[in-house]
Amino acid sequence: MGLFSSLPPIDHARVETAVAAAERRTSGEIRVLVSRAAVEDPVAEAQKHFARLGMHATAARNGVLILLAPRSRAYAVIGDRAIHEKCGDAFWTELAAAMGDAFKRGDFTAGLVLGVERAGELLAAHFPRQSDDRNELSDQVETI
Asked: Are 31 and 53 in contact (CB under 8 A)?
C-alpha cells in the first residue's frame, strides 16, 4: 500500500471542471500536475514540466502551471513571462496563499480548485478572453 495510498484522493474531474471554467474568462492557460513521488524542490520540478508541456509556446505567453506533490506536502505555481510582466510577485503570493491552507488540511482537491479559480480570476483581469481565443493546452490533470 505505502504512504501514497493513505493520502486523500484528488477529484480530477472537479479540478478539470474548474480549469475549463477559469479558461472561459481568460486567454490564459492553466495546467495542473500531481506528482506521485516525493519532490524535493517543487519549483524546479514545475519548471521542468512547464518546458516539457510546451507551456512557453502559448500565443500570449500567459500559461500557469500548478504542481502538487502530496507525498511531500509541497507545491509550486509558476507562469510564463507575460504574467510576470503584468502581475508581478503579488500574483504568485496571493495564488500560493489561497491554496496553502487547504493543502495543509490535506484537502488537495479543494486547494487545487481554489488555486485554479484564483488563477482564473487574476488572469481574466490582465488577460481577458478574446473572440479568437482557443484552448491551447489540455485541461486534464496530469499525474506524473
From this structure: yes
Could you give the CA distance from residue 124 to residue 96 in angstroms, rounded to a whole number?
18
Which one of 3.90.226.10, 3.40.50.720, 3.10.310.50, 3.40.50.410 gives the CATH number of domain 2-128?
3.10.310.50
Whole-number Å distance between alpha carbons of 19 and 45? 21
Please count the CA atoms within 13 angstroms of the CA of 110 that sit on its side-chain side: 10
Ordered per-residue pLDDT tens for the chain, 144 residues: 333 445 678 999 999 999 999 999 988 889 999 998 889 999 999 999 998 988 888 878 888 999 999 888 889 998 888 887 887 787 788 788 888 888 888 899 999 999 999 999 988 988 888 776 766 666 677 778
Q: Taking Cα atoms as reference points, which of 81, 127, 122, 99 lies closest to residue 34? A: 99
Query: Identity (one letter) of the amino acid at 1?
Result: M
